[in-house]
Amino acid sequence: MTTSIVVPDDFPTVFTGTPSERRLRTLGDVTIYTERGADRQPELVRRIANADAVLSLRNHSRYTEQVIAASPRLRLISLWGTGVDNVDLDVCRARGIRVTNTPGVNAHAVAEHAIGLMLTLARRIPAMDATVRAGGWRGPHDHLVQLEGRTLGIVGLGAIGRRMAELGRAFGMRLLVFTWDADQGRATSVGAEAASIEQLLRESDVVSLHLRLTADSRNFLDRDRLALMKPTAFLINTARGALIDHDALVDLLRAERIGGAGLDVFHEEPIPAGDPMLELPNVVLTPHNAGTTPEVIEAGLERAVENIERFLRA
């Protein structure tokens, strides 16, 4: 029987017509969905019901126990990207379903985006742009922040965290790093000091999150930890929205207990209309696209297809 490979995530402009698509089609009977389903989870169940392998392009497609149970032939979920928090790994393990990802492929792009959010907040670029467009000119300078000599706290030291350390050093920043194992050797290797999360939050002028979302890291920055930050500090999140207590962050930003936030990820995506985060002037928002440069897309698709190829030929 021919292997059925499904690309279920209605992201056609990324995949169709690429060398990766042509390579994938040599591996089996490939179905690529191009229309957006009205109700994502039931539509996902329908689309992958007879799949042997899935190439998933969007992290908000949730491979829950119910979805997996409705896919009796499924043997592989190949994820484009690093995070695996949208897959019930325990269920996959029990079923013998392999789950692969493409770690590190977007490290440079995500780190650059995090630096962009940091600079945008530090130099108040949206506000100054609006002033110039409204006919104004030189505004107040007392709220502009020079990054040289400031402290950058990096939470998590995977590929993206390491790249952040390189960029932070280039700005002349002092680096603090939190890792689960508090390994001073790992911190030293990137020119940083190992720190507890409490020390990092208290001393950093910019805190940048680069943790995977797991049961241990969900709500990692809760209200108590967020309250440790300096009132002038900036919080950058290009990892996962659920790492932060959303309501607590809104309250602290509104009260100016935190200087600002640059967010590419959210507790609910897309961020819903009426979310108070949309109204806060000290927040910069981007639509979870930190890692979607053309270079990352091409490299990630190639790696994801290669993962399927290796699995099927093993």
Describe the structure.
Helix content is 37%, strand content 15%. By secondary structure, the protein is an alpha/beta fold. It has two domains: 4-103 and 293-313, NAD(P)-binding Rossmann-like Domain (Rossmann fold, 3-Layer(aba) Sandwich), CATH 3.40.50.720; 107-285, 3-Layer(aba) Sandwich (Rossmann fold). The protein has a seven-stranded parallel beta sheet with strand order 8-7-6-9-10-11-12, sandwiched between helices. It is globular and about 70 Å long. The model has no long low-confidence stretch (mean pLDDT 94).
What is the CA-based Rg, rounded?
Answer: 21 Å
Strand order of the largest sheet: 8-7-6-9-10-11-12
Which architecture name of the largest domain does CATH use? 3-Layer(aba) Sandwich
Query: Which consecutive residue ranges, at least 5 long each, have pLDDT under 50?
Result: none
Tally of individual domains: 2
Pairing-aware structural class of the strands and helices?
alpha/beta
CATH topology of the largest domain: Rossmann fold
CATH superfamily membership of the largest domain, which one? NAD(P)-binding Rossmann-like Domain
SSE topology string: EHHEHEHEHEHHEHEHEHEHEHEEH
| Backbone shape | globular
